[in-house]
Design a protein that fits this description.
The complex is a heterodimer.
Chain A (H helix, E strand, L loop, with lengths): L19 H5 L3 H12 L4 H11 L20 E6 L18 H4 L4 E3 L5 E3 L3 H5 L4 E8 L5 H10 L12 H9 L8 E4 L19 E2 L4 H4 L16 H20 L4 H19 L1 H6 L7 H6 L20 H13 L4 E5 L9 H25 L6 E6 L3 E2 L11 E2 L3 E7 L6 E3 L1 E2 L6 E3 L2 E2 H12 L6 E4 L3 E4 L13
Parallel strand pairs in A: 1-7, 1-8, 4-12, 4-15, 5-6, 5-7
Antiparallel strand pairs in A: 2-3, 4-11, 8-11, 9-10, 13-14, 16-17
Helix pairs in contact in A: 2-10, 13-14
Chain B lengths: L32 H7 L16 H11 L26 H10 L15 H6 L16 H11 L12 E6 L3 E4 L5 E3 L2 E5 L4 E3 L5 E4 L5 E3 L4 E4 L3 E9 L2 E9 L16 H13 L9 H13 L5 H9 L5 H11 L1 H14 L14 H16 L4 H9 L3 E2 L8 H4 L8 H12 L19 H8 L5 E5 L6 E5 L6 E2 L6 E2 L17 H9 L4 H16 L19 H13 L4 H10 L26 E2 L2 H12 L29 H5 L19 H9 L4 H8 L3 H8 L3 H13 L5 H13 L4 H11 L2 H4 E2 L1
Parallel strand pairs in B: 2-10
Antiparallel strand pairs in B: 1-4, 3-8, 4-5, 6-9, 7-8, 9-10, 11-13, 12-13, 14-15, 16-17
């Protein structure tokens, strides 16, 4: 896939030079300001503002101007279930269907009178808090292509690389606090694309470390001073660097690029020395009750290679996600599990569903208790669902034509089951919701007009989501 | 910034409000005399000559083109727009006729009441049209459509002469200053020998409107100093004209810089024409570091530094280049660069396990070819015709590495092959003629058919695949009409002749010294590696609308490449010996803004693998890479970890290619916050510096030098390959005086590694 470079600057410079080069064609004064503000020790948020001003795409149009859209919610936590989450075994059970379709599990009544698979008793108990869309329609039953579609809203092309949703949010809204706007725990999905035609500044900050496996020892990679290194040492090294920078500076060769590097250094020092930033990435102050609420010790029924049952770590990831949202992070992605159950879908569910059920129900409950559920959307996604019929390996295969997603908070209706699939869960029988329309609805809640066109590499207007419409009935 | 070349692909389209593709200026109010002639029947009698009957292909489709109806953002989108689809820029005339006239009888075209035809009502905005008003009722575009509908909206009878070429009235325009303007005329030549002025039907665009713009009448106006290309498009052809807008002559005096070889002559000729003074020659320290990083993928050692600086002979740079080219590090580096493009990775495409053996075999084969400096056309010819075992016959790896999928998709393979070895992106032509180049769908499917006969079968063990030629495999089918398109070379009319594996003809074509697509691609990639930007850039996007920044230079390099037997080392030697390669990064007053004419060196961030190897080199502390023997250099590393990008966290962080595609852009050198944080507090630099101080190279420096001055100087040479300035020395000595050794020296080394001078080649 090509990555045509992006430029936001409409005057000067050669047209195919962008990204860093695009930066270069900015007026020197703008950059100097950024650099000198850095010297004055302005906060990270100020830096980000300067940077996002520089990384901005030109807007061609859109049916609504951005001013027309109030920002209803502040943050999104996307919980992605890679591999293809079985909708029959979760949000869209088919108890009336023959056994080769309905699979191995029974159902549990939700507190709204509907039914979920009995894999999800906790979520069924708080179904009055969220929306389930049972008729999401994707495009491609291939992991890589569908994951790219899920994260960007576009299917991959050889010619244009599209930005991820989190990158778009970073580009459109910028960061709200000291922390980066878009954070991936523990990292971004390899198939999810990148910042596409947007500048790399809008990429996700990846925690590297995984709160799910490191538990209370969780550390973001390269986010704090290593053992044995003092702050004085860091400052001395910074001082040495500052001294040698003068020589390359004096050559006046590509000052904009060097300024960009200096900005990154200033941001890095700021993050390394900010107590708040460090705190958001820790479990500091979280009581045992919180871990219990998220089901930190809950396991599935399948023993590991060591013959023991193990918790899955989703709880810890979600607690960190919640702390990041509290610190103002706008877009957090969390991945959980491995759902590509071509063989023995039952085993995959017995292994992974219960921790999922507890952790997500815990997050929704926790956000509500803290009064954050209105301003935060919890979005449970997967690149597709699974085939209606159980195959001869007792598994289910890829199925993009109809699957389920859950949306909690963020102004989505509470207690809504939207859409209905047919008797085997294969096709929508009413109220189909394309992935694009669902994304447009989430953008809408964030105050971003998905019809807005960003200009890629100079001339090419590209809608944030192509031809999508807000699904109003989903919103409260 | 406006470009129109990127506006393409089948994916484009379906944008709610129609935007004229920004650089394509649609001026619906102008008139082509030719259209007028066509729409007003000559003679006006019932027995008007047949030529006067409006032609769908010659008269109506150009209106669709000019008015933007069949653009990708409108009805030319793959699925059409609002229910009406036209082929993008008119690649499928028969289909367009059917959809326009027959799909909805009496609606789009109403021959009984021509004025009620939706085609006319929509285009003039008389009824609601998402695309808005395209032209006025009294315009000639309208008249052309109306005349054709009044004539009964006939399909063309017999064959309508095709356009075979278009040309502009001037291939090159030079403006003395901004504000001047001049008009271009566009002429189309048809298969029957006739020609026609199509200025009013063509579309125009500029590669850089800040230098020059071109309007819908073909009028070029100079906006600011620089050089660019303006284009005219008509039918499936695009033709460009170079535009130079000169900066003020005031204060300009050409300095006659010395020329080392033909490269300097051609670059400087261009610079003089553009009134740009090149930078000075870089100093010896800078040259040594630059050329060592470029050819050996690491900074110079202290010994190399001392020897080079002590050498006072006049040809020491040339000898240094020779020495580096003879070194096997150059072989490693070239193998890595080509291996990266060929997507070598040890991850089985079937998802069942590893492919260590095939990946090793492919890499070893490539390395052998490069070590022997075998003519590169032969190397690529062997890759193209490969058959055999991927475990044994390394060159067959191309067929499993490029396509990491259960099925060897010949379309994807052909497009990848073309992009890597010809620098041409053919993907667009799968679904429509390339909108911004000369390639047609026939070219595309002809190329695909070279590879439809290649199959992969299980080999001797689970990792092995047999790449075989299948004589029974049918050629690719054309997307529009499903007819088989036999293997055909790009731009050729006839399919390749002969029995058997058609890839042999492809290889013969690659080996033909006259194959400029191949020659230019190779030299341009090498040039981009050494100068930081291609003469054509992006390097894998040669096309009519992306012309070289210096055409004569590219031609001369390609010619020299052929003279030298198409081997890599001679042309690299030639480039490195040029004064152009050895210029300083420090700009002159006239070249600071230049980013494409090679008037100064560029500041280039080290590639991820080179950076990692460089940190290892200056600290003397090795680093292990996942699933590789200890001591493996990052440039020799093959990813053996499934579901990982490059296989190593640090390489990922610094933008190492994940080898997801053949695109040169997969290697990224843009900076990020994570990179800086990693350099400051990560485990690559800090712990290595600490180890170096505890019994390693830093300890050795401390032992060997009795004074702080000596230590500081040795550190600078080791890390930055230069001596400190007086100011730097003072600052470091002060730091040393205020703090404790050896910790303070660690801080100096770490501070230097975090500096831009270390991170960039300059």
């Amino acid at each position: 896939m090509t990555r045509p470079e992006f430029s936001s600057i409409r005057s000067g410079g050669r047209s195919y030079a962008a990204g860093c080069e695009g930066f270069r064609s900015l007026p020197r004064r703008t950059i100097l300001q950024a650099g000198s503000l850095a010297g004055l020790g302005l906060s990270l948020a100020d830096f980000l503002t300067v940077r996002s001003a520089r990384g901005e795409a030109s807007v061609v149009g859109g049916n609504l101007s951005q001013r027309d859209l109030p920002r209803r919610i502040k943050s999104v936590i996307q919980i992605n279930l890679p591999g293809g989450f079985p909708h029959h075994e979760s949000f869209d059970p088919k108890p009336e269907a023959p056994v080769e379709y309905r699979g191995s599990f029974g159902v549990v009544k939700t507190n709204t009178g509907d039914v979920f698979s009995d894999n999800l008793p906790k979520l069924a108990g708080i179904a009055d808090k969220f929306t389930v869309v049972r008729t999401v329609v994707g495009k491609i039953p291939d992991h890589n292509l569908a994951t790219y579609h899920l994260y960007t809203g576009y299917t991959p092309t050889a010619v244009i690389d599209y930005p991820q949703m989190g990158s778009i949010v970073s580009h459109e809204l910028g960061a709200a606090g000291e922390l980066p706007c878009y954070i991936a725990i523990p990292g971004k999905n390899n198939s999810s694309g990148g910042t596409g035609f947007l500048p790399s500044i809008h990429g996700p900050f990846e925690t590297g470390g995984d709160p799910g496996t490191q538990k209370k020892n969780f550390k973001v990679r390269d986010f704090s001073l290593p053992k044995g290194m003092s702050l004085e040492q860091l400052q001395r090294r910074r001082g040495v660097r500052d001294v040698v920078e003068k020589r390359i500076r004096s050559l006046e060769a590509n000052p904009v690029l060097l300024d960009t590097m200096d900005e990154f250094h200033a941001r890095a020092y700021s993050l390394l020395t900010s107590a708040d930033a460090q705190k958001a990435f820790s479990f500091e102050g979280e009581g045992d009750d919180v871990f219990e609420l998220y089901g930190s010790e809950v396991t599935g029924d399948i023993k590991g290679p060591d013959g023991k049952l193990h918790p899955k770590g989703l709880s810890e990831r979600l607690i960190i996600a919640r702390r990041l949202v509290e610190a103002g992070v706008r877009f957090v992605t969390v991945e959980y599990g491995s759902w590509d159950c071509h063989g023995d879908v039952k085993k995959a569910c017995l292994d992974q569903m219960r921790p999922f059920d507890y952790a997500v129900a815990g997050l929704v409950t926790d956000l509500e208790r803290r009064g954050l559920l209105d301003s935060t959307l919890v979005w449970v996604t997967s690149e597709f669902g699974r085939t209606p019929k159980v195959n001869k390996e007792s598994g289910r295969d890829h199925w993009a034509r109809n699957y389920s997603m859950m949306l909690a908070g963020g102004g989505f209706k509470q207690g809504l089951i939207y859409g209905a699939s047919d008797s085997t869960g294969g096709e929508p029988s009413r109220d189909a919701v394309t992935l694009e329309n669902l994304m447009a609805t989430i953008y809408y809640q964030m105050g971003i007009d998905s019809n807005k066109e960003l200009v890629a590499f100079g001339t090419r207007p590209i809608e944030i989501v192509k031809d999508a419409e807000v699904v109003k009935p989903l919103l409260g | 910034m406006m470009r129109w070349d990127a506006v393409s692909t089948k994916e484009q389209g379906d944008i709610m409000t129609v935007k004229p593709m920004v650089a394509i200026l649609v001026a619906a109010s102008t008139l082509a005399a030719a259209v007028a002639a066509a729409v007003e029947p000559v003679g006006g009698t019932a027995t008007a000559p047949a030529a006067a009957v409006p032609s769908f292909r010659s008269d109506v489709m150009p209106v669709f083109f000019r008015a933007g109806c069949n653009a990708g953002t409108c009805h030319g989108s793959a699925r059409g727009k609002d229910g009406y689809m036209l082929s993008l820029f008119g690649y499928d005339a028969a289909g367009d006729y059917r959809r326009t006239v027959e799909e909805m009888p009496g609606r789009r075209v109403n021959t009984a009441l021509p004025g009620e035809s939706l085609l006319l009502l929509k285009a003039t905005g008389a009824v609601a049209h998402s695309g808005g008003k395209r032209f006025e009722k009294d315009s000639d575009l309208y008249k052309a459509l109306a005349a054709w509908i009044e004539a009964g909206a006939p399909d063309d009878v017999g064959s309508v002469p095709d356009v075979v070429e278009i040309s502009v009235s001037q291939p090159s325009l030079v403006f003395d200053k901004a504000g001047e303007a001049e008009s271009l005329r566009v002429t189309a030549t048809y298969a029957d020998g006739s020609s026609r002025d199509v200025t009013a039907l063509a579309l125009f665009g500029s590669n850089n409107p800040s230098v020059a713009e071109i309007d819908g009448d073909g009028r070029v106006s100079a906006n600011g100093p620089g050089d660019t290309t303006v284009f005219a498009r008509f039918s499936r052809f695009t033709v460009g004209a170079e535009v130079i807008v000169l900066p003020s002559v005031e204060g300009f005096a050409w300095t006659n810089p010395p020329e080392n070889n033909f490269i300097d002559r051609l670059v400087f000729a261009r610079l003089e024409k553009l009134r740009i003074i090149p930078s000075e020659l870089c100093d010896d320290e800078t040259f040594l570091r630059r050329v060592t990083l470029d050819l050996a993928a690491r900074p110079p050692t202290v010994e190399e530094y001392q020897a080079f600086m002590a050498d006072s002979s006049a040809d020491k740079r040339a000898r240094k280049i020779d020495a580096l080219l003879a070194n096997e590090e150059f072989t490693d580096y070239m193998t890595a660069l080509w291996g990266e493009l060929c997507r070598v990775a040890s991850i089985d495409y079937t998802g069942r396990g590893d492919t260590h053996k095939p990946a090793n075999a492919f890499t070893a084969w490539l390395r052998d070819q490069i070590a022997a400096d075998r003519p590169f056309d032969e190397v690529v010819g062997d890759l193209a015709t490969a058959v055999g075992s991927t475990n044994v016959d390394g060159q067959t790896g191309l067929y499993t590495m490029l396509i990491k999928d259960y099925k060897l998709n010949p379309k994807v393979f052909a497009a990848d092959f073309s992009q890597i070895f010809l620098g041409v992106r053919m993907q667009c032509a799968e679904c429509h003629n390339h909108p911004f180049d000369r390639w047609t769908m026939d070219d595309y499917y002809g190329l695909v058919s070279f590879f439809t006969c290649v199959k992969r079968k299980p080999g001797s063990d689970g990792r092995d695949r047999r790449v075989i030629y299948d004589p029974a495999a049918p050629p690719a089918k054309h997307m529009v009409d499903g007819r088989p398109v036999p293997a055909k070379l790009l731009g050729a009319v006839e399919p390749v002749a002969g029995e058997g594996d058609p890839r042999r003809a492809l290889a013969a074509w690659i080996r033909d010294p006259g194959n400029d697509l191949f020659n230019r691609n190779v030299v341009n990639r090498l040039w981009a590696h050494l100068l930081g930007v291609g003469i054509v850039d992006p390097v894998d996007d040669f096309r009519a609308t992306n012309p070289p920044a210096n055409g004569p230079l590219l031609d001369a390099l390609a010619a020299r490449f052929v003279e030298d037997g198409r081997r890599l080392r001679p042309i690299v030697r030639e480039i490195c010996n040029s004064r152009v390669y050895q210029l300083s990064v420090e700009p002159t007053p006239s070249n600071a803004a230049d980013q494409r004419q090679f008037s100064h060196a560029r500041v280039r961030r080290l590639r991820a693998d080179v950076l990692l190897d460089s940190i290892v080199a200056v600290t003397g502390v090795p680093r292990s890479l996942p699933r590789s023997p200890t001591g493996t250099k990052a440039i020799n590393y093959i990813n053996r970890t499934p579901n990982s990008a490059s296989g190593d966290f640090v390489l990922d962080t610094f933008g190492q290619s994940a080898r997801n595609s053949v695109c040169a852009c997969d290697t990224r050198t843009d900076p990020s916050l994570s990179q800086v944080m990693h350099l400051l507090v990560g485990d690559t630099a800090g712990p290595r510096v600490h180890t170096a101080a505890k019994g390693g190279v830093l300890q050795k420096i401390l032992d060997e030098h009795s004074t702080p001055e000596g230590v500081v100087e040795a550190i600078f040479i080791r890390v930055l390959a230069r001596r400190p300035t007086a100011m730097e020395m003072d600052a470091m000595l002060q730091l040393v005086a205020e703090n404790q050794a050896p910790a303070v020296y660690e801080d100096i080394v770490a501070g230097l590694i975090a500096s831009n001078e270390f991170l960039f080649n300059h």
